[in-house]
Amino acid sequence: MPAKDLTSGPAMRGIFATRIADTKTGAWRQERPVVVAERCVGCSVCTRYCPAGVIYKGCPVVIDYEYCKGCGICTTVCPQEAINMVEEETADATN
Ligand code: SF4
Ligand code: SF4
C-alpha cells in the first residue's frame, strides 16, 4: 500500500518527516559525513537528497549530526566529491 494511502499514524511531511519525529539518530551512526570545505561549491544537491533533511544550505553546507543517520547518500550525490564518510571512532569531534 502506498504511504499516501495510509489512514492512521502521523501525517507525512516529505523529507522533513524524520526531523519532525524528533528522533535523534546521531548515536546510531557508525560513520559520519564530513564536508571538505574547500571543495564545496554550495550547489545544495546534498541538501535536496538527504532523507533526514539535516544538511543546511551554505558554502560549505552544515550537517546537523544530532539527526544525521550516516546513510552516505550525500556522499554519493555530491558532484564535487566534497563529502567523505569517516568512521565515528576516528572522526574529529568538532566535525
Ligand atoms: S552537493 Fe557537494 S558541493 Fe554541493 S553543496 Fe553539497 S557538499 Fe557542497
Ligand atoms: S549521511 Fe545521510 S542523513 Fe547524514 S547528512 Fe548525509 S544524506 Fe543526510
Low-confidence stretches: 1-9
The largest β sheet comes out as:
2 strands, antiparallel
Supply the helix-strand structural class: alpha+beta
Strand content: 5-15%
The CATH architecture name reads 2-Layer Sandwich
H and E string? HEHEEHE
Helix percentage range: 10-25%
Q: Give the overall shape.
A: globular
Record field, number of beta strands: 4
CATH class equals Alpha Beta
- How far do the termini sit from each other? 40 Å
Our count of domains comes out at 1
Descriptors for this entry?
globular; 95 residues; disordered N terminus; Alpha-Beta Plaits; two-stranded antiparallel ribbon; alpha+beta; binds iron/sulfur cluster; 4 strands
Secondary-structure blueprint:
Blueprint lengths: L16 H4 L10 E5 L9 H5 L5 E2 L5 E2 L9 H5 L5 E5 L8
Antiparallel strand pairs: 1-4, 2-3
The chain binds iron/sulfur cluster (2 copies).
Describe what this molecule looks like in 3D.
The strands form two sheets. The protein has a two-stranded antiparallel ribbon. The chain has a two-stranded antiparallel sheet with strand order 2-3. The protein has 95 residues and is an alpha+beta fold. The chain is globular, with a radius of gyration of 14 Å. It contains three helices and four strands. The protein has a single domain, classed as Alpha-Beta Plaits (2-Layer Sandwich). The chain has helices spanning 17-20, 45-49, 73-77, and strands at 31-35, 55-56, 62-63, 83-87. The protein starts with 16 loop residues before the first helix and ends in an 8-residue tail after the last strand. It binds iron/sulfur cluster (2 copies).
